[in-house]
Amino acid sequence: xxxxxxxxxxxxxxxxxxxxxxxxxxxxxxxxxxxxxxxxxxxxxxxxxxxxxxxxxxxxxxxxxxxxxxxxxxxxxxxxxxxxxxxxxxxxxxxxxxxxxxxxxxxxxxxxxxxxxxxxxxxxxxxxxxxxxxxxxxxxxxxxxxxxxxxxxxxxxxxxxxxxxxxxxxxxxxxxxxxxxxxxxxxxxxxxxxxxxxxxxxxxxxxxxxxxxxxxxxxxxxxxxxxxxxx
Length: 231
Prior knowledge:
Layout: E1 2-13, H1 18-25, E2 31-37, H2 42-47, E3 48-52, E4 56-61, E5 66-71, E6 86-93, E7 96-104, H3 112-127, E8 131-137, H4 149-164, E9 167-169, E10 180-181, E11 187-188, E12 191-196, E13 200-205, H5 209-213, E14 225-230
Parallel strand pairs: 1-2, 7-8
Antiparallel strand pairs: 1-14, 2-4, 3-4, 5-6, 6-7, 8-12, 9-12, 10-11, 13-14
């Protein structure tokens, strides 16, 4: 079966962002990882099962034929902010067990807590037998300025470690990909979708940046990223 997975930082989304919600509704995704979500309109929640976190939401379309669905958690940590970095659920679909992680690194340059979170995620991957899809706004990129060198190192460590664990970044084949634009015109990939190497990718989609950023009112300062998988 095909599964469309979307990740997008919605840039402080509330009920009043009618144009944003209308655009999102046209994307016809099955599973959505959304960051900077303040409020979700009823018409969205009517069509999707909703798992909420700290400005972080995971949506599953109610038309999916699921055998089971439940929220799941990483190993308990004494660091109380760890759980704020992610929302996760585990589903049984098409004879497969699938874990979905929507991630939001809301701390940004203060990276030590997020690094600890990533270690817990790596342990979850190593110990589990599920197919796992990981996406969201990680707020890290290897090309950030020298003053943010630790973020650059963390980005390299993350992509390298997930590659060792059998995952691929769906944008890795693109030349100079970006998902975020700074006010001064800087372009970075800080949003990611990681899928297991053994899962067939049927399509990778993201709209032209101008369609999102230059729209008035602007839809977001992040570009949505969607992958269609054969599960």
